[in-house]
Amino acid sequence: MNPLLNLIVLLSLCGLTLSRHVQFYLNGYECFYQEIFAKTKCSLEYAPISGSKPHVDVTVEDPNQYVFYRKSQQEYDYFHFETNVTGTYRVCFSNIYDLMMYDNVIYMDFVVGEEGKMVRLRDGQTPMTQVETSIVNIYDAMKVVELYQNHHRIREANGRIVAQSLHDKVMAWSLSQAGAIVLMGCIQVYILRQFFTARKDEI
């Protein structure tokens, strides 16, 4: 086979994983569906990255409607599992608490298949060429970079939420203190004027 054609085909087939990176607006209840074969390793990573209440309820169901993963009011989680049956799996998110719906932006990374696994164009006993080895190394390094990017994106979003909440509280406290100082100053000026103001009936 032509080495150039071999390289092009290898690049086109280098990933066997199905990865779904989603950022979606959640206001109530939202579900995602995915066809998965049995004995497939999958992973689910999610986190609410903005919203008035950064918590979310999550459930994962198999094709038989059996809920094998359920979490309530989560800020972040990473769940790895292996499917038992072939069919449509469902991942649902909810942010309805105390009969109230909160607005959130949710980040979800749903990976179906083994990360880092690549297609070999030739027999597994045949050693790879230097170009193929370089491609495999680059692919593995990019997968690691992608995982780190996802992790730090979620951490940065959560940190931004905490910082924004702290900023709002400090701003409200500062404004209340400034208002109290102005009010106390006005009261002091009024009291001092009463001491030095002579009434007409007293003259």
Automatic annotation (TrEMBL):
Top-level taxon of the source organism: Eukaryota
Signal peptide stretch: 1-19
Keyword Transmembrane appears in the UniProt entry: yes
TM ranges: 170-192
GO CC, alphabetical: endomembrane system; membrane
Lineage, opening ranks: Eukaryota, Metazoa, Cnidaria, Hydrozoa, Hydroidolina
SUPFAM superfamilies the UniProt entry points to: Supernatant protein factor (SPF), C-terminal domain (SSF101576)
Pfam families tied to this protein: EMP24_GP25L
Main location as per UniProt: membrane
Record organism: Clytia hemisphaerica
Protein name listed in UniProt: GOLD domain-containing protein
Family to which this protein belongs: Belongs to the EMP24/GP25L family.
GOLD domain span: 29-112
Membrane topology, as annotated: Single-pass membrane protein; Single-pass type I membrane protein
Compartment(s) of residence: Endomembrane system; Membrane
Keywords: Membrane, Signal, Transmembrane, Transmembrane helix
